[in-house]
């Protein structure tokens, strides 16, 4: 046999085994890679939520504004800013964000999911927040004596709930 042909065969075999091993590690049937991905998403969600909470009392809400240097945001520029700190790129605007990632049913919400609301009168999405778990979410809002980042009970917004997206 030709020595050059033997080297090529060995290299091809090694590449094949490497690809098969890589596929085995990331395939949905193993559970291990999924658990690692899930753990990474969970850790990222914890960081995002913690960062959003750290902005309470520092952020001002203003409709249509995305001003990170002065910490003045509307609801979607706030989520855009917070997620960006963890390497997740979101578009600005609730209509755009409501199409990013994957749909999540209300019964399957996880920490870090984006949750969207309408105004209670129409079905048009007009607000976004970050699900924190245990029926709570954090959002940048204005109304009554509120202006800035607040934690709310999702149950109190159930009549306005529209949809959710998983971007982690």
From TrEMBL:
Signal sequence, renumbered to the chain: 1-24
Keyword Repressor: no
Pfam families: NLPC_P60
Keyword entries, A-Z: Hydrolase, Protease, Signal, Thiol protease
Domain NlpC/P60: 42-168
The organism of origin for this protein: Paenibacillus thailandensis
InterPro entries to which the protein is assigned, alphabetical: NLP_P60_dom, Papain-like_cys_pep_sf, Peptidase_C40
Protein's name according to its UniProt entry: C40 family peptidase
Keyword check for Hydrolase: yes
């Amino acid at each position: 046999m030709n020595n050059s042909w033997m080297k090529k065969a060995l290299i091809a075999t090694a590449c094949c085994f490497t690809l098969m091993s890589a596929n085995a590690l990331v395939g949905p049937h193993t559970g291990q890679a999924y658990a690692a991905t899930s753990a990474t998403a969970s850790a990222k969600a914890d960081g995002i939520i913690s960062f959003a909470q750290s902005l309470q009392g520092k952020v001002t809400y203003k409709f249509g504004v995305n001003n990170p240097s002065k910490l003045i945001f509307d609801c979607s520029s706030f989520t855009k800013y917070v997620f960006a700190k963890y390497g997740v790129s979101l578009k600005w605007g609730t209509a755009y964000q409501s199409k990013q990632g994957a749909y999540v049913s209300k019964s399957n919400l996880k920490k870090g999911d984006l949750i969207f609301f309408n105004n209670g009168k129409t079905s048009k999405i007009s607000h976004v927040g970050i699900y924190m778990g245990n029926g709570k979410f954090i959002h940048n809002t204005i109304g009554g004596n509120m202006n800035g980042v607040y934690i709310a009970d999702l149950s109190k917004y159930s009549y306005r709930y529209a949809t959710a997206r998983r971007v982690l």
